[in-house]
Structure formats: C-alpha cells, structure tokens
Amino acid sequence: MPIREYQAKDPGKGCAACRRPFEQLERMDQQPRDRCPQCGAPVIRLISAPVPGASRTGLDDRAKSAGFHKLKKLGRGEYEKQY
User: Fold this and answer.
1) How far apart are CA 71 and CA 33, in angstroms?
2) pLDDT single digits (tens) 27-54
3) Would you say residue 3 has pLDDT above 70?
4) What own/partner pairs with CB < 8 Å and gap ≥ 24 does 33-42 have?
C-alpha cells in the first residue's frame, strides 16, 4: 500500500493538518483524495521524491556485506554466483 502526500489547494483555507503536507496510507486501487479527512477542504496530491537508499544497488551492497550471495540463472538448472 503506497503512502501518498497531500496538501490544501489554498493553504489559507485549510485546517492545521492540511495546511502543511500530510501523508495518507491508501490502497493501490483507491482513488486519490480530493478533500481533507479532518476539515473537508480541497486538497491536491503532491509528487514525492524517491526514498534515498532504496535502490537495488543499495540492497545488493547490504546483502553482500551481511554474508549473503546472489545467483544469476545461466540456463536450465545452471547458475553462476555473482558474489
């Protein structure tokens, strides 16, 4: 379930909760909010920046340093050790 960020369209007309950006946990198939859950003021959905350190290379480095290894499939029943 993604965490979506919202903020009041007009910060002067929202409550204390929606004047600043707030996060909302929602299902993937759920439509984006158009109203603040507390005061009902119109809100807009904000575009979030990616989380730093959540890239695949970061996961690979952490797994390697923890002693795990990674296999790459070469063919039917054949694997090559990556690290």
Assistant:
1) 43
2) 888 888 899 989 999 999 998 776 665 5
3) yes
4) 33/4, 33/6, 36/6, 36/8, 39/14, 39/15, 41/8, 41/9, 41/10, 41/13, 41/14, 41/15, 42/8, 42/9, 42/10
Q: Residue 53 region, left (φ>0) first, then alpha (ψ -120 to 50), else beta? A: left
Q: Distance (Å, rounded) from C-alpha 80 to C-alpha 5?
A: 42
The Cβ of residue 37 has, within 10 Å, a number of other Cβ atoms equal to 13
User: What 3-state class would DSSP assign to 51?
Assistant: coil
Q: Which pTM does this prediction carry?
A: 0.55
Q: Look up residue 20 and give its two tokens.
A: 């600043």
**What kind and span of H or E run contains 45?**
strand 43-46
pLDDT of residue 55: 57
Torsion of Cα atoms, 61 then 63 then 66 then 71, to 10° = -110
